[in-house]
Amino acid sequence: MLAEDFEISRLAIPAVSLLISFLAYTSQYFFYNFKAAPLTLDEGWAINVLALCIWVCYFRSCFVDPGRLDPKGKSVVHSQQEKDQSTGRQRWCRRCEAYKPPRAHHCKTCKRCIPRMDHHCPWTANCVSYFTFPHFFRFLFYTVVGMGYLETLLWQRASIIWHERDMPSYLGPSVPQLVHLLLLLVANTVTWLGIFILLIRTVWSMLFNTTTIESWEIERHETLVRRARVLGGFLEGPGGVKIRIRKQEYPYDIGLFSNIVHSMGDSINIFSWFWPFASTPDRRNGWSFETNEFEDPSVTWPPPDPDRIPIPKDSFPVHDPDIPISYASARDQVEAFDRRQAADMDRPRPYSTVQRRKRFHERFQEEPNYESDEERPPGPVYSNDPDEGEESWRNAEGERLRDFGVDEDVEFYDEDDVPLGLLMEQRRGRQ
Ligand SMILES: [Zn+2]
Ligand SMILES: [Zn+2]
């Protein structure tokens, strides 16, 4: 499966380049030989200039670095993880072992945290991020304009052929020409429609300053609020921790114009939004973001999610002599944390032992009926299927987090993080 993905991602850029070449250049060959209405000089210029814009923007969407964590960020907050556990938030990346800045996500393909990650685009084999979004937007824009223009030229020729269909065939286009025109029309129309829809969605997300992943998070939050409403305002997290869930406003919608400016890399130069050679956003930006302040400053995005937080520290076995419960100094605490992580890394992790929290509804359906609360074993309930836990929650469009290229193992809690000893203890307790 991995090998398959690898091959597909390697073929994406050549395939897209081939399609651009087929549409932009073989179409000109067709027009050149189409005697009834050859390409005018202006039309020829327009096609080639638009094709050049598409090439430049596509190349930059593919090869501009989507950004990487500031190495200084690693030392920022070791205690962040513990703070997050109590509030049901997760801002610690356990792959990068670093503080995850707001709006960043860990990309499974790029193998690092990407600032303001929108999604990992399979067609550019690159992440759409704070730094690459403007290039990606221009690529979609010029593709829609360029292919829309080509579409009108192709239909003009097609309508000429249709009107002259009663003429003797030797006066009209040859069969290969007709087939070529048909192929161009089909390829151009289908691709144009697909990219046009993607452009509309992208502009929509610019207007509200939401990334594709954040739109998913907004829907996820609405679901959690609905669930919590039924359960008295709280949802249970790993280790039985109770997380308070309340409706939270999306913080990055800062007004229509500001939203667009921000999406275009904080550039207010409207001309540069459409200029294929516009510079990549300033590399110093992209780590903190202006908010609309509808919420209390202590409230962060994404909202608390009991399935996306690490297991609380209390659930780790306390008998480990290497992990004192209180620390003499901050330095000791950091060292203990590092030791714990190193031990975690050394622990053998056969894939089959990875267990996920069950889907929310299944946690209730499949639990045996205990006669009283005392009989119910403590702790959360887990799924045995590593692929079908709560991380497989999908939004209205049927997308789960990994569909955007996000590393779900980072974003969703899994039981693999619990030391084996504790697992055995829990299981013994349950039997
Ligand atoms: Zn990361
Ligand atoms: Zn990526």
Automatic annotation (TrEMBL):
Q: Give the protein's biological function.
A: Mediates the reversible addition of palmitate to target proteins, thereby regulating their membrane association and biological function.
Upper classification of the source organism reads: Eukaryota, Fungi, Dikarya, Ascomycota, Pezizomycotina
Q: What is its EC number?
A: 2.3.1.225
Task: Tell me yes or no: is ATP-binding among this UniProt entry's keywords.
Answer: no
What sequence ranges are listed for the domain Palmitoyltransferase DHHC? Answer: 88-217
By its UniProt entry, which PANTHER family does this protein fall under?
PALMITOYLTRANSFERASE ZDHHC16
Q: What does the entry's domain section say?
A: The DHHC domain is required for palmitoyltransferase activity.
Alphabetical GO CC annotations of the entry are: endoplasmic reticulum membrane
Q: Annotated Gene Ontology MF terms?
A: protein-cysteine S-palmitoyltransferase activity
Tell me which species this is from: Penicillium citrinum
- Main localisation: endoplasmic reticulum
Question: How does this protein lie in the membrane?
Answer: Multi-pass membrane protein
Compartments (UniProt record): Endoplasmic reticulum membrane; Membrane
Which sequence ranges are marked TM in the entry? 12-32, 44-63, 139-158, 178-200
Give the Basic and acidic residues compositional bias ranges.
339-349, 391-405
Task: Tell me which residues this entry annotates as catalytic.
Answer: 121 (s-palmitoyl cysteine intermediate)
Q: Spell out the protein name for this chain.
A: Palmitoyltransferase PFA4
The protein's matches in InterPro entries, at most eight in alphabetical order, are given as: Palmitoyltrfase_DHHC, PFA4, PFA4/ZDH16/20/ERF2-like
Provide the top EC class: transferase
- List every stretch annotated Disordered: 339-410
Q: Which reaction does it catalyse?
A: L-cysteinyl-[protein] + hexadecanoyl-CoA = S-hexadecanoyl-L-cysteinyl-[protein] + CoA
Give the keywords, sorted: Acyltransferase, Endoplasmic reticulum, Lipoprotein, Membrane, Palmitate, Transferase, Transmembrane, Transmembrane helix
Report the family membership.
Belongs to the DHHC palmitoyltransferase family. PFA4 subfamily.
